[in-house]
């Protein structure tokens, strides 16, 4: 939804110092294309990861530590990229997008709050996963 709101805003917003709508400018068009590609890639990664997590849950088997650690790192990257996409959208929208009554500001606030949860801490999860990849025991609970 954030990307859709950005597209709608581009069609209405006039670039400061010009009479051009943001949607008429090549740079805006390019940024929209990049953001769209990133979002589609992220959605595909999220769906694939969700399928893998669901399969482990439904299998009744215990997911091996190395597999679980790898999934946790991928989930952390998904959350980080989602946050970065929303940040980039707001950067393109200008200062007024940060107004409290703007839904884009709320999306940023929500994703910032979510990404701050300890389960998505990539420093911790990548250290654990790296240790397991090297044949060492994990130093954190998985």
From TrEMBL:
Keywords attached to this entry: Oxidoreductase
GO terms of molecular function: oxidoreductase activity, acting on the CH-CH group of donors
Domain Acyl-CoA dehydrogenase C-terminal: 2-121
Pfam families hit by this protein: Acyl-CoA_dh_2 (PF08028)
Name of this chain's protein: Acyl-CoA dehydrogenase C-terminal domain-containing protein
């Amino acid at each position: 939804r954030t990307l859709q709101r950005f597209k709608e805003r581009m069609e209405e917003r006039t670039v400061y110092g010009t009479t051009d709508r943001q949607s008429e400018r090549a740079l805006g068009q390019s940024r929209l294309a990049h953001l769209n590609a990133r979002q589609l890639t992220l959605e595909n990664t999220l769906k694939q990861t969700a399928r893998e997590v669901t399969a482990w849950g439904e299998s009744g088997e215990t997911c091996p530590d190395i597999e679980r650690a790898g999934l946790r790192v991928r989930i952390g990257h998904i959350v980080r990229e989602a946050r970065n996409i929303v940040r980039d959208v707001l950067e393109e929208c200008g200062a007024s997008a940060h107004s409290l009554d703007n839904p884009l500001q709320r999306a940023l606030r929500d994703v910032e709050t979510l990404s701050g949860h300890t389960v998505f801490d990539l420093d911790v999860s990548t250290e654990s996963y790296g240790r397991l990849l090297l044949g060492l025991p994990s130093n954190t609970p998985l």
